[in-house]
Write a structure and sequence with these properties.
This protein has 194 residues and is an all-alpha fold. The protein has one domain. It is 69% helix and 0% strand. Helix 2 crosses helix 5 and helix 3 packs across helix 4.
Length: 194
């Protein structure tokens, strides 16, 4: 059963990775960067909108929660990668000659699960839940950004789809947990958090 799942994961990866063309490589490489002219404005806008919605004191608590959330997703990803020890596609001799390795740099040896997918989904869901009652557009805009970042990892040849799906699941789950914990703080008792 597990071998069959891994084979399906590899086949889907090869299909999605193979859709790429050199004309789009730069776009997907740039989109995959943690800090870029795409992501920095998103982060600045989220900070500004949080401040405008909650004021300084609550914004500080929210920033601490976001930092703890990202630290948790990142560290959990490292622990799981080293425990599961599933090779990244670009390090997997079984398929690395069949795929497009856009970056020509594969990153760490192991890839299960994607920290990019976990971190971007954690941020997206956290802020979507934070502002859902005020602005439902957050949900769609941040979900689109998360999906693009996640797909970029397959496009670049550094993660399998299952790495991405697990990363998304971890990010979503942890962001829900952190929003739940944030709501329990006395400073947010009267706020309109979900």
């Amino acid at each position: 059963m597990l071998e069959e799942l891994i084979k399906i994961d590899q086949d889907i990866f090869l299909y999605l990775n193979g859709l790429g063309t050199p004309a789009w490589d730069g776009f997907w490489m740039y989109l995959s960067r943690t800090l870029s002219l795409v992501t920095i404005p998103i982060y600045v806008f989220l900070l500004y909108y949080t401040y405008r919605s909650f004021g300084v004191k609550k914004t500080i608590y929210i920033l601490i929660a976001v930092a703890a959330l990202l630290l948790t997703t990142e560290q959990l990803s490292i622990i799981v990668k080293n425990s599961v020890a599933r090779l990244r596609p670009c390090h997997d001799d079984e398929i690395n000659l069949l795929m497009r390795n856009v970056k020509n740099h594969c990153g760490g040896k192991f890839g299960y699960f994607s920290a990019h997918a976990a971190n971007s989904s954690a941020l997206a869901v956290f802020f979507s839940l934070l502002f859902y009652k005020k602005n439902k557009l957050f949900l769609f805009a941040l979900a689109a950004w998360t999906l693009l970042v996640s797909y970029s990892r397959i496009y670049l040849g550094v993660h399998y789809p299952l790495d991405i799906i697990t990363g998304l699941t971890v990010g979503i789950t942890l962001s829900c947990l952190y929003i739940f914990l944030l709501k329990k703080l006395p400073v947010f008792k009267s706020s309109h958090l979900i």
